[in-house]
Design goal:
Rossmann fold; six-stranded parallel β-sheet; iron; oxidoreductase; membrane; ferric-chelate reductase (NADH); 35 helices; globular; alpha/beta
């Protein structure tokens, strides 16, 4: 327990652990691949250095703090001066727009500001983002342009795109803040005889300032400057316009004949110069000055180095003086001997850090304010400047070679330039042809180019080459990030984000930088959460032992039991915090996965473990169970048996002593002990009971599960929990009856266990348990459904029974369930915009709803639907048949008439005069985290009746993926069985209601349809197939994620913030209300009252956090709502003929669904024969239909003769529960997530 120690007189272990965690976060995200591909993650986590330094110093103390003081001291001085400089608005004079999309920004500068070539400047444009600062190379020369400073910006990302749009829209003023300039101390390149400048793309920008410097030096008398060979490579000829920046926007010196410049330009992607018709003009835009603007100058004026020395010296002397005064007149009177044992160890450090920062701020502000007067004088001149009108100059000089550049005497840049089209520079030949004795070689461009130049210079074959390196790490970091953000925004704008990848695409991504970066992040987070979870499970395995109860827990309780949290502090720390930490980190990880479009199942350990497994049981009470599931079930049962044994073994040792004291028989005491042990073991089951029913749980998504697939785990846990609690209650009732203490059943103790509350909780649990058995649930579903809402009563009286402190053992699962349930409630309050309904002759309806463009979901997802005109209470789950990539603004579900609710809906829609508006509420969608079926060579989809619905979304997804460039998709063999010939119309749903422009010939689809109850085709009235379009309503809203596009990020914020609010509320209540009464004795303040406050604060904290996040995101949804109000409603039109009819489907190029379909009448599919004839090596087998069909397919796939068949299943237990009551009663729909290898 030393890990939890925060010593008053020595090293603080807790502070060191926090510092280590923070350092690890910065270290992991600073690795090269993560830094390049997810720069924002690296950038923001690196801001944790402040907390790291604080906790590091608190860990080591003030003495060791002095060892690292010099570096921290100078860094704080520099950081604060940069902050002061950034508060001023810089005077932006003009912008020169180039045809290639780049632009040069020219600022007003103080004449006293000097900088060397290749310096950089950090820019911030508040109108775009107040937080983003981007570094750019300064292209101007302070000797050539004494009152101007220029930088070049290339459009590579969202920030630069927005800046270009603002400038090109002819704004008269643009607010800009700057930091810098920062650069080398001297121009060392002037010492060489020849300069070879090698650049790629925008890497030419640092060389612009170098060439301008050489131009200035060449005009000085008796000055020798190096000859310059500029080798620049561009992708397109339009990029040659960057060479115009070699000359400033104003006139250059009149005499530049002393400079010998040769330019070799290579255009790699074009074979010839474009025609004059395609040439664009150069445009210069001038900005209007403002009295708030000021020229760029050093933050400390012209004598900045002198003032910096003054700040360092004065602030340090001030720090020593104030520290001496504080020590002499405050600390020393308390700690007379300077022993460090009387005055708190951490307070020393806090004083040191506070005084250090205060002294730096005082000294820096004093100097800055003193120099501000000089800056104000220069700022007054800006107000009187005249603004020239925007001008347009001819096309770039390299494109208009026929015009003479008379301003360049003796030699024009055109004459000095040679352009090579469709070629790349032969750097080895160019460098070895340099005959000068002293050649300086500078390279700026892609890494491969720089490495190639460095390798040539270091080869030893040419001793005259001197490789000069100029680091632009800031630029490369930021510009790489801009480029990636731009690509991501283009993906979002098109709404074509692939939610799945086939095996080859995954391997390709895994070998690339983005895949490698996400692999590192995935591995680190998985390892971290595995360690936390294993520690959590270790605690559960140690909880029943005397080692934990007598040694570990008292020590933790001593450290955590305070006047703020009381006795529940230790329980919250041990049992609640780890799982909530896992849920928070998992939410952040899922946000990154979604943001960077990464297939997390390709590397995640949990997903591999869940998806790669053999079937262990195909028939029986447990249903279809895999070996992995059976293994974990056995491990959990072993934990329960171990816990029961350990509790009973330790407590039975004192049974004889207790029997003598109570004057009872030993077996009676053991019976009571057994009842207590069963109750404690039941807590273990209850702690995990609510995890599977949280539909939007980040924990389930992180391990590759969904709530639908996990319902069977909830069923297993529910049966075990109630069996144990029932035995617990029977033991106590028997004991009280035998010992004549039956009155104990009516006891509600104020400070101990409440028996009455336990009995009420047990009765509520028994009612839920009795109505949850299969036969009762199927025959009396409403009884099961409504009685299951007694879980509220069960939880409340369970907490009253054992107290809030002990109930924190089950808090994590119920806490996450409560958040999910409240978010679902908020989502269900919206009325959804119904777009259309497609009515098929098989009494099937496809409903289409408007969807938010930012909502994406995986195939086989489900949505819960409520139609108030039929029933305000009933919510029914249905498979989503649409595809979020193919239908970016629509979402559709299929409803088959098999019950009273669906029949009423069908009658409403199929009536001769159908309703013009359908009021609907939706919860969801809920589904798997990714689509793993893309990894197979072939997919065999086996369905019975309406079990085809999940396969519709799968086929649509594969259809979409097959039309992507370079995408390889599995072949599809769909085997569907229907009772009647008219049910074949359901195959019409394989295409969306609006049709598709995708090429169906790109993927191979084979359909075998079996009609089991009819032996010949029957004529179906074509008019029975029609599409109804609904009228929009101003109150309707599109289907959207309850927390918007960044739902996982918001969920993480809700979990963490609500838990913090809960701790604050419970801490304030305990400290200022309960503790003054009880003093942590637990014998003065009633336990039911503290339990009530605990439950209330959990609900209040969760409601505040979730409601705040929901209302914040509601504004974004309102924008899309405005678009719905202006939607036009077309006249209902009939759909194309169904596959049932003898018509050609001409809209399908190369292959129609009719040609791909084989219909067999009066037969059932021979699944064993069909599956045994599959010869591919990697075949995914999905089944959705009656239980006998699922069990038959599972048995075939699990046989040793079918090693190539992988039984994939997606559970729809929600459907099986809800729809067995009247929807889809005939084919029981359930796909269980498993795999057979």
């Amino acid at each position: 327990m030393q890990m939890l120690e925060w010593s008053k007189t020595y090293v603080s272990n807790v502070a060191g652990e926090i510092a280590t965690v923070l350092a690890l976060a910065m270290w992991v995200t600073s690795s090269y691949r993560i830094r390049r591909k997810m720069f924002e993650v690296f950038f923001y986590t690196h801001q944790l250095y402040i907390l790291y330094v604080v906790f590091y110093v608190l860990h080591v103390g003030s003495a060791y703090f002095c060892m690292i003081l010099p570096g921290i001291f100078l860094f704080i001085v520099d950081r604060y001066l940069r902050f002061l400089q950034s508060q001023r608005r810089a005077r932006l004079e003009s912008a020169r727009l180039l045809p290639c999309g780049s632009f040069e920004l020219t600022f007003s500068k103080s004449p006293g500001l000097y900088y060397n070539p290749t310096s950089i400047l950090f820019l911030n444009v508040p109108s775009i983002s107040k937080l983003q600062w981007h570094p750019f190379t300064i292209t101007s020369n302070c000797n050539m342009e004494q009152d101007k400073l220029s930088v070049v910006v290339k459009r590579l990302g969202s920030w630069s795109q927005k800046l270009y749009q603002q400038i090109s829209s002819s704004v008269d003023r643009l607010e800009v803040s700057v930091e810098g300039p920062y650069g080398p101390t001297s121009s060392h390149f002037l010492r060489h005889e020849l300069l070879v400048l090698v650049s790629g793309g925008s890497g030419i920008t640092p060389f612009i300032s170098i060439i301008r410097e050489i131009i200035v030096e060449s005009t000085k008398p008796d000055c020798q400057v190096p000859r310059v060979l500029l080798v620049c490579a561009f992708k397109n000829s339009a990029d040659l316009a960057v060479l115009d920046l070699l000359l400033p926007v104003n006139a250059t010196p009149s005499n530049i004949s002393q400079m010998q410049l040769q330019i070799e330009a290579y255009i790699t992607s074009e074979g010839e110069l474009p025609t004059d018709d395609n040439l664009k003009l150069l445009q210069t835009i001038w900005f209007k000055p403002n009295q708030l603007d000021s020229p760029i100058n050093a933050s400390l004026g012209n004598n900045n180095w002198l003032w910096l020395g003054a700040i360092i010296v004065s602030s340090f002397v001030m720090f020593l003086l104030i520290l001496g005064i504080v020590t002499r007149y405050y600390i020393y009177p308390i700690d007379h001997q300077n022993t460090g044992e009387t005055y708190h160890y951490s307070y020393y450090v806090l004083w040191d850090m506070f005084l250090l920062c205060a002294c730096i701020f005082i000294a820096s502000n004093a100097v800055f304010l003193f120099l501000k007067k000089e800056h104000a004088v220069e700022g007054k001149h800006i107000q009187n400047l005249e603004v020239p009108a925007p001008t347009t100059s001819p096309g770039s000089w390299f494109q208009n070679a026929n015009s003479e550049l008379e301003s360049q005497p003796h030699q024009s840049l055109v004459q000095a330039t040679k352009v090579h089209f469709g070629a790349r520079p032969d750097l080895k030949r160019i460098l070895f042809d340099c005959k000068a004795s002293d050649v300086g070689v500078l390279a700026c461009g892609p890494r491969k180019m720089r490495h190639e130049v460095a390798k040539i210079c270091s080869s030893g074959l040419s001793d005259n080459l001197h490789f000069e390196s100029i680091s632009f790490n800031w630029n490369s970091f930021f510009m790489d990030t801009l480029s990636r953000l731009n690509m991501q925004e283009e993906k979002k704008g098109l709404q074509i984000r692939a939610n799945s990848r086939n095996k080859e695409m995954t391997e390709e991504m895994g070998s690339g930088p983005a895949g490698a970066s996400m692999k590192i992040v995935s591995a680190v987070i998985t390892l971290l959460l595995m360690v936390v979870f294993l520690g959590y499970m270790m605690i559960w395995s140690m909880t029943p032992t005397n080692t934990f109860y007598l040694n570990w827990f008292p020590h933790v309780e001593k450290k955590t039991s305070s006047t703020y949290l009381g006795e529940q502090g230790s329980t919250i720390l041990i049992y609640a915090f780890p799982i909530l930490f896992i849920a928070t980190v998992a939410s952040l990880y899922l946000h990154l996965v979604k943001k960077y479009d990464y297939d997390h199942n390709s590397t995640r350990f949990f997903s591999r473990m869940i998806l790669s497994r053999r079937l262990a049981i195909t028939k029986g009470l447990l249903g279809i169970v895999t070996r992995t599931e059976l293994t974990f079930l056995a491990m959990f049962v072993a934990l329960l048996v171990w816990s029961l044994y350990s509790y009973m073994h330790d407590m039975f040792a004192f049974a004889s002593v207790e029997a003598a004291q109570e004057k009872s028989q030993v077996w009676e005491v053991k019976l009571e002990t057994a009842g207590l042990s069963l109750g404690l073991v039941g807590n273990t089951c209850l702690a995990f009971l609510f995890f599977p029913v949280a539909r939007g749980s980040s924990v389930l998504q992180f391990v590759g599960l969904t709530s639908e697939a996990s319902i069977k785990y909830h069923i297993w846990l529910g049966h075990i929990t109630m069996a144990i609690f029932t035995a617990h209650g029977l033991c106590y009732v028997t004991y009280w009856s035998r010992t004549h203490q039956i009155s104990q059943m009516l006891k509600w103790d104020k400070f101990m266990v409440s028996n009455v509350a336990g009995e009420i909780a047990l009765l509520a649990g028994l009612v839920m348990w009795a109505t949850s058995f299969g036969r009762i649930r199927r025959k009396f579903f409403e009884l099961f459904y409504y009685s299951h809402h007694l879980y509220v009563v069960f939880v409340i009286f369970y907490v009253f029974h054992i107290g809030f402190s002990e109930s924190c053992l089950i808090l994590p699962g119920f806490y996450l369930f409560l958040i999910d349930r409240y978010l679902r409630l908020l989502q269900s309050q919206k009325k959804i915009r119904s777009v259309a309904a497609r009515i098929l002759p098989s009494e099937t309806v496809e409903l289409n709803f408007s969807k938010s463009s930012g909502l994406s979901y995986a195939p086989t997802s489900i949505a819960f639907i409520n139609v108030p005109s039929i029933s305000r209470i009933q919510w029914h789950p249905f498979t989503i048949t649409s595809n979020s990539n193919m239908d970016s603004d629509k979402i559709s579900v299929v409803i088959k008439c098999n019950g009273s609710w669906s029949h009423e809906l069908y009658q409403i829609l199929s009536s001769p005069s159908p309703t013009s508006r359908l009021e609907v509420s939706i919860e969801g969608p809920y589904g798997p985290p990714s689509t793993n079926f893309m990894r197979y060579e072939k997919l065999v989809l086996v369905s019975g009746g309406s079990g085809i619905t999940p396969f519709i979304s799968i086929i649509r997804e594969i259809n979409f993926q097959s039309n992507r460039t370079g995408s390889k998709t599995p072949r599809i063999h769909l085997i569907c069985a229907f009772k009647k010939y008219a049910n074949l119309a359901m195959l019409e749903l394989l295409l969306p209601v609006s049709g598709t422009t995708l090429d169906l010939s790109r993927f191979q689809l084979q359909i075998e349809a079996y009609i089991t109850q009819e032996t010949e085709p029957k004529t179906v009235n074509k008019s029975s197939i029609r599409t109804i379009l609904f009228k929009p309503n101003p109150s309707d809203a599109p289907v959207s994620a309850v927390l918007g596009p960044n739902s996982w990020l918001w969920l993480s914020a809700i979990i963490s913030s609500s838990f913090i609010i809960f701790l604050l509320l419970i801490g304030l209540l305990t400290r200022f209300y309960i503790f003054p009464i009880d003093h942590n004795t637990n014998m003065k303040y009633p336990m039911p009252a503290s339990s009530s406050f605990g439950m209330l604060f959990v609900c209040v904290a969760m409601t505040i956090a979730a409601s705040a996040a929901f209302l914040w995101n509601k504004r974004e949804n309102a924008k899309e709502l405005n678009q719905i109000r202006t939607t036009d409603v077309s006249t209902p039109a009939p759909s194309p003929a169904s596959l049932v009819y003898e018509t050609e489907l001409e809209s399908f190029p190369h292959q129609s669904l009719r040609q791909a379909t084989t219909v067999q009448l009066g037969r059932r599919p021979n699944l064993k024969k069909i599956l045994s004839e599959v010869k591919e090596e990697n075949v995914g087998v999905y089944v959705s239909g009656p239980r006998t069909m699922r069990q038959e397919v599972a048995a075939v796939c699990s046989s040793f003769s079918a090693d190539n068949l992988h039984f994939e299943s997606i559970s729809f237990n929600w459907k099986r529960k809800y729809l067995k009551h009247g929807e889809f009663r005939s084919p029981e729909l359930s796909l269980l997530r498993s795999e057979v290898l």
